[in-house]
Amino acid sequence: MSFDLIIHDACLPDGQRGVDIACAQGRIQAVAPGITAAAGRVIDAGGRLVSPPFVDAHFHLDSTLSLGLPRLNQSGTLLEGIALWGELKPTLTREAVVERALRYCDLAVAQGLLAIRSHVDVCDPRLLAVEALLEVRECVRPWIDLQLVAFPQDGYLRAPGAAANLERALDMGVDVVGGIPHFERTMADGAESVRALCAIAARRGLMVDMHCDESDDPHSRHIETLAAETQRLGLAGRVAGSHLTSMHSMDNYYVSKLLPLMAEAGVAAIANPLINITLQGRHDTYPKRRGMTRVPELRQAGVTVAFGHDCVMDPWYPLGGADMLDVAHMGLHVGMMTSREGMRFCFDAVTTNAARILGLAEYGLSPGCHADMVLLDAADPIEAIRLRAARLAVVRRGTVIAESPPRHTRLHLPGRPAAVAQAGYAPP
Where is the signal peptide (predicted)? Predict the structure, then answer.
């Protein structure tokens, strides 16, 4: 049999080494050592890691690359970021949103990021951002799986017209029901919004991904309502709570009750390490809370946990570059997950776990899966995180769509090597 692409001598995330991956007709046809068939293109991985593509479980594509418009976030807080976005929204044009989103998708492909769940604000009665991102979704479909969440940024109950706008957005083809209960006027309104939004998802047969308890307030507990509604409406496996930063500040007794409720209901959790540790704790002196939710404890309770990038160069975050290894690197440090198993989990949090939450079909490195993968300049997942490894080749449906050279530095030191490569420093 002739193949379109064969990658020789790969290391896989599960530890297999010396593996060949053969692709044809957009799918992985064989994964085994010593594949000798002809192929349109052959890549020698040289013992490096081949991974399924990176997946961003939580992002805001409508606001990305808008840093400085209309001005910078001086306080660095979530609320000032929301206010800035509110000032920017009336001046948005469809063309500008599309252009920025497409530029970001170019960057994502270069980083091996081939699936993104993006929240899109539905509180503008024009639904301009919704129209723009629906256009972007179609444009990038050949190389990125883009999933859109109807997100009532200004509050489902609080913002005039938000409820009707959200339904309109779903009618237009937005994929997932979103919410922001902690931004409603009262805790009671927040709980009511969770119930209403979950009912919409149940009626339409859709998934739910709710910004939940993105606060330092330990009494912000909408994730409890989300778990209860998930169980009541039979939505297990279709619901994620994003951020959950209030859990960072909750007392341990309450958390010991909450985590089993989430696991029992089948609610997933999405932490956003880069953003959670910069927006949270802004009102603290010292000690200063870092805000990221309790990732190790959620995992121990049996909850599926993924990481998201959340923001890149927008009103909430002035940095970022579509690099999910950067996200995993920060999550590892903040969550103190420095065991070998913990570090490998952080790689899963931006690949397989995130894909599971998004419900991506035929994702992975087994025969029959889509031939989507990334060749990394690293020996294994831990080394990939340590190095934020170069993406030597990014493959979509069996075709290489992006390439980067290895990172080597030439030295001019008497008696020392002529060059160094960080990937060469892997521990034995």
Answer: none
C-alpha to C-alpha distance for 25 and 21, rounded to whole angstroms: 14
Predicted confidence (pLDDT) per residue in 319-347, tens digit:
999 999 999 999 999 999 999 999 999 99
Please tell me the chain's helix, strand, coil percentages from 3-state DSSP, rounded to the nearest 5: 35, 25, 40
Q: Examine the domain organization and report whether 39 and 147 are in the same domain.
A: no
| Token reading at 409 | 């530095």
Residue 167 lies in a domain: yes
What would the pLDDT profile of 198-242 be if each residue is shown by its tens digit? 999 999 999 999 999 999 999 999 999 999 999 999 999 999 999
- What is the three-class DSSP state of 319? coil
Looking at the fold, whether 390 and 298 belong to one and the same domain comes out as no
Q: How many domains does the chain have?
A: 2
Strands 239-243 and 113-121: unpaired
How far is Cα 175 from Cα 54, in angstroms, rounded to an integer?
20
Residue 264 token pair: 């029992």
Return the SS3 of 361.
coil
Q: SS3 of 383, please?
A: helix
Among residues 80, 95, 167, 214, the one annotated as catalytic is 214
The pTM of the full predicted model, rounded to 2 decimals, is 0.98
66 CB contacts (<8 Å, ≥6 apart)? 88, 100, 313, 314, 315
Give yes or no: residues 347 and 321 share one domain.
yes
Cα(289)–Cα(279) distance, rounded to whole angstroms?
A: 10
Task: Say what the alpha-carbon torsion angle 365, 368, 371, 375 is, to the nearest 10 degrees.
Answer: 20
Question: Is 225 in contact with 181 (CB distance < 8 Å)?
Answer: yes
Do you know the residue count of the chain?
428
Q: Is 175:209 a contact under the CB 8 Å cutoff? A: no
- Helices then strands, each counted (H, E), the chain: 13, 18
Cis previous bond, 70, omega within 30:
yes
Rounded Cα distance between 53 and 306, Å, is: 14
CATH of residue 327's domain is: 3.20.20.140
Question: What distance in Å separates the CA atoms of residue 23 and residue 7, rounded to the nearest whole number?
Answer: 9
Nearest partner of 59 among 3, 12, 113, 120, judged by Cα: 120
* Active-site residue flag, 138: no
Output the six-digit token pair for 301. 């309770």
